Automatic annotation (TrEMBL):
Keyword terms, alphabetized: Porphyrin biosynthesis, Transferase
Residues of the Porphobilinogen deaminase C-terminal domain: 218-288
Name under which the protein is recorded: Hydroxymethylbilane synthase
Matching Pfam families: Porphobil_deam, Porphobil_deamC
One Gene Ontology biological process: heme biosynthetic process
Pathway membership, UniProt: Porphyrin-containing compound metabolism; protoporphyrin-IX biosynthesis; coproporphyrinogen-III from 5-aminolevulinate: step 2/4
EC number(s) reported in the record: 2.5.1.61
Record has Secreted as a keyword: no
Length: 301
C-alpha cells in the first residue's frame, strides 16, 4: 500500500495537527510519514507578519515541496492558508472544527487587572483592532513565535496578557487559565485543520476524502469567500464565523479600522444551500454600506 508523505511545519502545534491527519489515515490502514519543513514564517521571528508584506509565509515552503513531489499532502491551520492557492494546489479536506474562538491569557501577577488596564502582546491586526473597539485605551505590543515561545515571553517580558486561538491551547493540552473572548469574532477558518494536495493528484484526493467534514467545509468556504471578497489583496482586521444551526447558517462578519473606531458588522441567519455561497453576497453588501471606505483607509496607511 502507498506510503503517504505528510508535510508539516516544524512547530509543536503544526506537528500535532499533522499527526492528527496521520491518525485518521492510519485508522484506514494507510501508511504515513511526517516530513517537517521549516517555513519562511518560522525563520524570521523578529518581524510582525503584517509587515512582511507577503501572504502565505507559513504555507509557501510546503507548497513548493508539494509541487516538487517531495510530499503528497500538506497539513495546515486553515487560517494560515491564503485565499488564493498556487496553480495546481487545492484544499482537499477540512477536519471537523473543534475550537473556533480566541482566548485571553494573563500572567499570574496581572490576573486581577481589568480588561482596560491590560498591556497586551499580539501581532494580529484583527485581535488588536477588535479589542480596541471595546477598550480603546489599551496598550499593545508585538509578539511573534509559536505558542510555547509566546507563553515564555508572557512570563518574562513587560506585558500583562496575550491572545491565542483556543484550538492551539487545547490541542497542545496546555494547563493554563484562559478567558474565552466571545466578542472577538475569529479569523476566517480559525480552529480548522486543512489538507492541501496537488489538484491533479486524483489518487490522493480520493484517498483523503473520507476525513472531510461537510458542515465544516460549508462554514469555512463561506468565511473564506467573504474574506476574499472583502480584502482584495490587503491585510485588514477581518473576522468571520459561520455555524450551522439546524438547517440554517448563522454568519457573523466584521471589518474594523486599525484603531477599532470604525467598524461594519453583520450577524445573519439564513437558509444555506450547497449551490450558493453567501459569503460573497454578504461581503459585497458590507462593502457598499461602508466597509469599502474602511478598506481604502487601511490601504492608504
Ligand atoms: N497565527 C498563528 C496561528 N495559526 C493557527 C493557529 C492556531 C490554530 C487555529 O486557530 O486554527 C495559530 C496560533 C494562534 O492564533 O494563537
Amino acid at each position: 500500500m502507498k506510503n503517504i508523505r505528510i508535510g508539516s511545519r516544524n512547530s509543536p502545534l503544526a506537528l500535532w495537527q499533522a499527526r492528527e491527519v496521520a491518525r485518521h489515515l492510519q485508522n484506514k490502514n494507510y501508511k504515513t510519514e511526517i516530513i517537517p519543513i521549516i517555513s519562511t514564517g518560522d525563520k524570521n521571528l523578529a518581524v510582525p507578519l503584517y509587515e512582511m508584506g507577503i501572504t502565505g509565509v507559513f504555507t509557501k515552503d510546503l507548497d513548493v515541496a508539494l509541487l516538487e513531489n517531495r510530499i503528497d499532502i500538506a497539513v495546515h491551520s486553515l487560517k494560515d492558508i491564503p485565499t488564493k492557492l498556487p496553480n495546481n494546489l487545492s484544499i482537499i479536506a477540512y477536519l471537523k472544527r473543534d475550537f473556533p474562538k480566541d482566548v485571553l491569557v494573563k500572567k499570574e501577577s496581572s490576573k486581577n487587572k481589568e480588561h482596560h488596564e491590560l498591556k497586551i502582546a499580539t501581532s494580529s491586526l484583527r485581535r488588536r483592532a477588535f479589542w480596541l473597539k471595546d477598550f480603546p485605551e489599551t496598550e499593545f505590543c508585538d509578539i511573534r513565535g509559536n505558542v510555547n515561545t509566546r507563553l515564555k515571553k508572557l512570563e518574562e517580558q513587560d506585558f500583562d496578557a496575550t491572545i491565542f486561538s483556543q484550538a492551539a491551547i487545547e490541542r497542545m493540552k496546555l494547563k493554563i487559565d484562559y478567558e474565552e473572548l466571545t466578542n472577538l469574532i475569529p479569523a476566517p477558518g480559525q480552529g480548522v485543520i486543512a489538507v492541501v494536495a496537488r489538484t491533479d493528484d486524483a489518487e490522493i484526493i480520493n484517498l483523503v476524502n473520507f476525513i472531510n467534514d461537510d458542515e465544516t467545509q460549508i462554514c469555512v468556504e463561506t468565511e473564506r469567500i467573504f474574506l476574499q471578497t472583502m480584502e482584495g489583496g490587503c491585510t485588514a482586521p477581518i473576522g468571520a464565523f459561520a455555524e450551522i444551526i439546524g438547517d440554517e447558517m448563522r454568519f457573523r462578519g466584521r471589518i474594523c479600522s486599525l484603531d477599532g473606531k470604525n467598524e461594519i458588522e453583520t450577524d445573519d441567519v439564513f437558509k444555506y444551500s450547497s449551490e450558493e455561497n453567501f459569503g460573497e453576497k454578504i461581503a459585497l453588501e458590507m462593502l457598499k454600506s461602508g466597509a469599502q471606505n474602511i478598506m481604502n483607509d487601511i490601504k492608504a496607511q
